[in-house]
Structure formats: structure tokens, C-alpha cells
């Protein structure tokens, strides 16, 4: 029995799809705002989304999964203030918003591929659904949950008994303080949020609508697109925990306004990735991307493995030491898996059944990946070496997808004399704690196409 934690009820609940006849699970995942490179924190959330898909499939469900791409409307502050993130980025980089969207969409998709994040059944762009959003806003107005001002259309939060407190334990004071709402005398309540905004002259992304040239508020896209592809109610909605107090509360408000009910049955939220125990931020220069990890000789799949080391509802702390250990552990797990592959002994069938059960119990207990990985380690380390254990690990790989049957990449290669000499010189420099020289040699090796990785066994090279 698959159990998933639901932020809405604060309980682990048995998963039962709405479309039980066809055994289809319907999911909506809030996607990226494509104004910048996605960072490894974002990737934690999407690796979770991918794992959830795989766990549902492992349990025999078919999937109807929608993810959006936010390419308009997400302002620099979640509370309807500031500039559109896309427009800001375009201005700073002297590009059009469409060029920005294309560039960062391609970049994140490359990262998804490297992380073995599967494609969702539907990938939908906000700018392709402006008409659906406009209609959605009009329905909310018609139902009496929204009103027009000179600036646009606002959701009237006083119409909902529990506005802002469906998923979160927000109280109104906190909500107002959190939102740092700008005083706008035309708004009926300070916490009312924008659904449809009149575009100022200089605004680039704008569409002709019932209120003239406008652009959508950020939250409306998810309501309009989830309904279009999944219907008024669907099974699971995912996102990071930062979406709980504003974005998802507002999605719920919009859905109640238009359709009369909360759109998803189960709401799942991923806790944040932290860096060195704190926040990731531009000012601390610690906003790392998958490419940053690769530059340090870390495989993207080692990051996938690293995210499995904590349950998705607990914070995960990234440090360079921790990610290097994850890479080492993954290499060892591959080595242990290879030993099983080459094994010629007979496996104990009772043990196989027991491992299978333990693995299933782990993933079905609200996707407990640390436990699931522990089971894989137990199988890989079985003293009896058997191809049957290897086959079992490959079955578990339907969930983990860590290329566990891959040969480790730091295999013996013949290096040129120049490379060998540089390596030796660097070894000596490090021995003498001359890190300046050692770093210079590292750069030279980089120019020659090699990354140096300092491991316990000494220096290793990886082709870039
Ligand atoms: P955004 O493009 O800002 O909407 O973010 C995309 C997704 O990444 C959202 O689901 C966020 O909740 C999630 N996210 C942002 N920062 C982090 C983080 N540090 N750790 C985990 N998830 C994050
Ligand atoms: Zn969303």
C-alpha cells in the first residue's frame, strides 16, 4: 500500500487515484521560472518529482503528469510587487524575453537529462495558455470572487473563510507581514492578490484582453493549465515548501473561485536544500548549478544519489565534502554491483523476496529513499556473489536510475608525458603545501582537457 504525506491534511494517506477504473495517477508539478540557470536546490525538488513518478509506476499506475514552464508573470516578489522576472533578466542581458526563455529552458532540460529526470507526459508553457487564463479570471469574476480596479483584476480574499490557511498555519498578520503588501487603496483587502494586470506602456509581455492590454498574475497559470489538462480535480500537486504559504494558497483560492473546490487531493512539498547549513544566495556566491558540480569533477548522478540521502520532507545540507563523499559512495556502490553481476553463486530466494519487500515498503512509506538506498547497499554487499542479486538491483534501478551498472569512469587511461609530468609536479607541490603552484597546474591540466580530482588514493583525472 502506497502512503503519501499530504500537506493539506498533515497526514500520511493511502494513495487512491480518482481514476481508479483506468489506474491513472494525475499529477501537476509547478515548473521552473526560466529567467536564470536553475540551481541544485531547484533540482532537489525535480528529482523528488521524478522519484514520485517512478514510485507510482512501480506500483502499477499509469501517469498523466503535467509540468509547466513559467515564462511570464512571475514578479520579483511573490506578493505582486516588483518587475516581471523574465523582463528583468531580458533587460539585464540585452535579450528579448523569448530569447531568455528559450536559453534557460534548454539549459534546465540538459540538466534534467543528466540527472535522469524523465519527461512528464505534458510540458506546458504559460505564454501558450493566455486565453485559458483570461477565461479562468473571467469565471472567478462572474462567480463574485474577484473585482476590477484601475490596475487590474484582484481576488477578493474576504470571500473565503480560510484564505491563506488551507495548507499552511498562516495567520492573517503573518500573511500580511510575509507579503509586505504595498498599500493600494483600490484593493478591498490588503492581502487580495492580482489575477490579471493592466500592462504599462513599457511592459513587453502583454496581450489584448477584456481589460485591454494585460498580462497574467503568476498564480493563475497553474490553475488554468492544470484544469485544461487534468480537469477540475486531480490526484497530486507538487512543489517546494516555499510554495505552501503563497503560491499554492492562491492556486487553491482561484480554484474555489472558479470551480468551487480545491484542485488536488494530495499536496506534496519538498523541503529546502541548504548550503553549508544556510540559505543559498547570490550575495554569498553559493548558488550552485549542476555545471558547477561537474566543473569540480562531480557527476550529476552523484547529486541525484546525494538527494536520496535525506527524506524529501527534511532539510538537506549541501557541502563540498558531502557531495564528494556521495560521489565516492556511488562509485563504490557501482563496484559492488559489478561484483554481483560477475557472480556465479546461487542467491538465496528467501533473501531476494525479503529485499524486495523491504525496498517496496521503503518507497511506499512516503518515498523513504534513504531506506531504499540502504536496501540496495545490503543487496550489493551480499557476501554471496550472484547475478540474481545484480538483477534485483537493476529492478530497483527503475526508481533510483543511478547508472549502477556503469563502469566507474576513472579507469586507467594512458596519459601523455606532458600530463604525467604535470601530475607529478602537482603532487610534489601539494606535498610541500605549495597550493599556489598546485592550483596553477590544475588550470594547465584543465586547458589540456582534464579535471583533477583529489581523492584518498591520490590525484585522479577525468576528461572534460
Ligand atoms: P522557481 O523557478 O523559483 O519557481 O522554483 C522552482 C522549484 O524549485 C519550486 O518548486 C521551488 O519550490 C523549488 N526550490 C527553490 N529553491 C529550492 C531549494 N533551495 N531547495 C529545494 N527546492 C527549491
Ligand atoms: Zn504553480
Secondary structure elements and pairings:
Layout: E1 3-6, E2 11-14, E3 24-29, H1 40-58, E4 62-69, E5 75-77, E6 81-84, H2 85-93, H3 97-114, E7 122-125, H4 130-142, E8 146-148, E9 152-155, H5 172-179, E10 194-198, E11 207-209, E12 212-216, H6 220-230, E13 234-240, H7 244-259, E14 264-270, E15 273-275, H8 290-295, H9 300-307, E16 316-318, H10 320-341, H11 349-364, H12 369-380, H13 387-400, H14 417-431, H15 435-447, E17 450-455, E18 458-463
Bound molecules: adenosine monophosphate (AMP) and zinc ion.
Structure commentary:
The protein is an alpha/beta fold and 464 residues long. It folds into 3 domains: 3-270, HUPs (Rossmann fold), CATH 3.40.50.620; 274-400, Isoleucyl-tRNA Synthetase, Domain 1 (Orthogonal Bundle); 417-463. The chain is 43% helix and 18% strand. It contains 15 helices and 18 strands. It has a 5-stranded parallel β-sheet with strand order 7-4-3-13-14, sandwiched between helices. It has a 5-stranded antiparallel β-sheet with strand order 8-9-10-12-11. A two-stranded antiparallel ribbon has the order 1-2. Strand 3, helix 1 (40-58) and strand 4 (62-69) form a beta-alpha-beta unit. Helix 11 packs antiparallel against helix 12 and helix 12 (369-380) runs antiparallel to helix 13 (387-400). Adenosine monophosphate binds next to helix 1 and strand 13.
Overall tally of structural domains: 3
What spatial form do the alpha-carbon principal axes imply? globular
Bound heterogens, unique:
adenosine monophosphate, zinc ion
Question: What is the radius of gyration computed over CA atoms, rounded to a whole number of angstroms?
Answer: 25 Å
Amino acid at each position: 500500500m502506497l502512503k503519501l504525506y499530504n500537506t493539506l491534511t498533515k497526514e500520511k494517506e493511502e494513495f487512491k487515484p480518482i481514476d481508479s477504473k483506468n489506474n491513472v495517477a494525475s499529477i501537476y508539478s509547478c515548473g521552473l521560472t526560466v529567467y536564470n540557470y536553475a540551481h541544485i536546490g531547484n533540482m532537489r525538488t525535480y528529482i523528488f518529482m521524478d522519484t514520485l513518478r517512478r514510485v507510482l509506476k512501480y506500483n502499477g499506475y499509469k501517469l498523466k503528469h503535467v509540468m509547466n514552464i513559467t515564462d511570464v508573470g512571475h514578479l520579483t516578489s511573490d506578493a505582486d510587487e516588483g518587475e516581471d522576472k523574465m523582463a528583468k533578466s531580458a533587460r539585464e542581458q540585452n535579450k528579448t524575453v523569448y530569447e531568455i526563455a528559450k536559453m534557460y529552458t534548454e539549459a534546465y532540460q540538459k540538466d534534467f537529462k543528466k540527472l535522469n529526470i524523465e519527461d512528464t507526459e505534458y510540458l506546458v508553457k504559460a505564454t501558450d495558455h493566455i486565453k485559458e487564463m483570461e477565461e479562468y479570471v473571467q469565471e472567478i469574476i462572474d462567480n463574485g470572487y474577484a473585482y476590477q480596479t484601475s490596475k487590474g483584476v484582484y481576488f477578493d480574499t474576504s470571500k473565503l473563510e480560510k484564505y491563506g490557511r488551507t495548507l499552511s498555519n498562516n495567520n492573517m498578520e503573518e500573511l500580511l507581514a510575509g507579503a509586505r503588501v504595498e498599500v493600494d487603496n483600490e484593493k478591498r483587502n490588503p492581502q487580495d492578490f492580482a489575477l490579471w494586470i493592466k500592462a504599462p506602456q513599457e511592459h513587453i509581455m502583454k496581450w489584448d484582453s477584456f481589460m485591454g492590454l494585460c498580462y497574467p498574475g503568476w498564480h493563475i497559470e497553474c490553475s488554468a493549465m492544470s484544469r485544461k489538462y487534468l480537469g477540475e480535480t486531480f490526484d497530486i500537486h507538487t512543489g517546494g515548501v516555499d510554495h505552501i504559504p503563497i503560491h499554492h494558497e492562491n492556486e487553491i483560492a482561484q480554484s474555489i473561485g472558479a470551480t468551487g473546490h480545491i484542485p488536488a487531493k494530495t499536496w506534496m512539498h519538498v523541503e529546502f536544500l541548504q548550503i553549508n547549513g544556510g540559505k543559498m544566495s547570490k550575495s554569498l556566491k553559493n548558488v550552485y548549478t549542476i555545471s558547477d558540480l561537474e566543473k569540480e569533477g562531480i557527476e550529476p548522478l552523484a547529486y541525484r544519489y546525494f538527494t536520496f540521502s535525506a527524506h524529501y520532507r527534511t532539510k538537506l545540507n549541501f557541502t563540498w565534502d558531502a557531495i564528494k563523499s556521495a560521489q565516492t559512495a556511488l562509485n563504490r556502490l557501482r563496484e559492488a554491483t559489478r561484483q554481483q553481476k560477475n557472480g556465479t553463486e546461487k542467491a538465496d530466494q528467501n533473501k531476494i523476496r525479503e529485499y524486495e519487500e523491504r525496498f517496496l515498503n521503503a518507497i511506499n512509506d512516503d518515498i523513504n529513499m534513504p531506506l531504499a538506498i540502504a536496501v540496495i547497499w545490503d543487496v550489493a554487499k551480499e557476501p554471496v556473489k550472484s547475478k540474481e542479486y545484480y538483477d534485483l538491483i537493476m529492478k530497483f534501478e527503475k526508481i533510483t536510475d543511478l547508472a549502477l551498472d556503469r563502469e566507474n569512469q576513472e579507469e586507467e587511461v594512458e596519459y601523455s608525458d606532458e600530463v604525467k609530468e604535470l601530475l607529478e609536479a602537482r603532487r610534489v607541490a601539494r606535498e610541500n603545501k605549495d597550493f599556489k603552484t598546485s592550483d596553477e597546474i590544475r588550470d594547465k591540466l584543465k586547458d589540456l582537457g582534464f579535471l583533477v580530482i583529489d581523492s584518498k588514493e591520490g590525484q585522479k583525472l577525468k576528461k572534460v
